[in-house]
Amino acid sequence: MPRFDPHPELRPAVVTGASAGIGAATAAALAAAGHPVVLAARRVERLADLAAQLRADGAEALALPLDLADPASIDEFAERAADALGPLDVLVNNAGVVEIMTGAGADPDDFAASVQVNLLGAHRLAARLAPAMVGRGHGDVVFVTSDVVVRPRTRMAAYVTAKAGMEGLARAMQMELEGTGVRVGMVRPGPASTEQGTTWSEDAVNAVVADWAAWGHMRHDGALRPRNVADAIVAMVSAPKGTHLTLIEVQPEAPVRADRTHE
């Protein structure tokens, strides 16, 4: 495999879940900012297409398979990514899966599998890559969480559990790594227009939306675009040294009301 030798100021970056949505937009935004990028996901063909597109635009981009449900895959990915691009200085833990699942009704094995992908796999990858950042005294680890942490949604018990755990992990790491030169941040998106949930049946979607409306989660029909979240991630890792953006919450702007009156 060819080894890139990027200028140290370019800060090689890893983006998980880069085959679509927020991950793909983040990889493209980081590449446009000059970062060599490693694109990680299970859907390797889509990764390869995006990596080729980024290279055609003049970026250094590499696609590598990563299955966060498989610890061996995570370990192999971490080694291959570092071998390919050299010292990795940015990790964006974005990959995740959203499944309809209630706390009392979920099969415990299915619940555990969802938490593995959304939380434990992200921790394992951070544990494999962050120590080298600490050794160099420089780096950024970004966890893409969700506003379900502060506004839990029904029928998403495993996802809510995992994202709440992810924010707990991030806050603990922020304290533990303070003074090492490694910054840990959270980007917390609100409702977004991505591929998540597109495999749900129409009946399931109708039931979920009705539940969410009953709990006040459907104030308006605005939705974030993947690039909106990607811009926040790039802003976080691009903050000058001496600045630590610990949490950025990104919410969709409501459509402008026709009357625009304030009462």
Care to describe what's here?
This protein is 44% helix and 14% strand. With 263 residues, the chain is of the alpha/beta class. It has a single domain (8-250), classed as NAD(P)-binding Rossmann-like Domain (Rossmann fold, 3-Layer(aba) Sandwich), CATH 3.40.50. The chain has a seven-stranded parallel beta sheet, with helices on both faces. Mean pLDDT is 89; it is low at 1-8.
Largest sheet: 7 strands, parallel
Strand order, biggest sheet? 3-2-1-4-5-6-7
Give average pLDDT, whole number: 89
Q: How much helicity do the residues have?
A: 40-55%
Order of helices and strands: EHEHEHEHEHEHHE
Given as residue ranges, the uncertain stretches (5+ residues, pLDDT < 50) are 1-8
Write the layout of secondary structure elements.
Elements: E1 13-16, H1 21-32, E2 37-41, H2 44-56, E3 61-65, H3 71-85, E4 90-93, H4 108-136, E5 139-144, H5 157-176, E6 182-189, H6 202-214, H7 226-238, E7 247-250
Parallel strand pairs: 1-2, 1-4, 2-3, 4-5, 5-6, 6-7
Short summary of the structure?
This protein has 263 residues and is of the alpha/beta class. The chain has one domain: Rossmann fold (3-Layer(aba) Sandwich), CATH 3.40.50. It is built from seven helices and seven strands; from the N terminus they run E-H-E-H-E-H-E-H-E-H-E-H-H-E.
Label this structure with key terms.
single chain, 263 residues, alpha/beta, Rossmann fold, 7-stranded parallel beta sheet, 7 helices, 7 strands, disordered N terminus
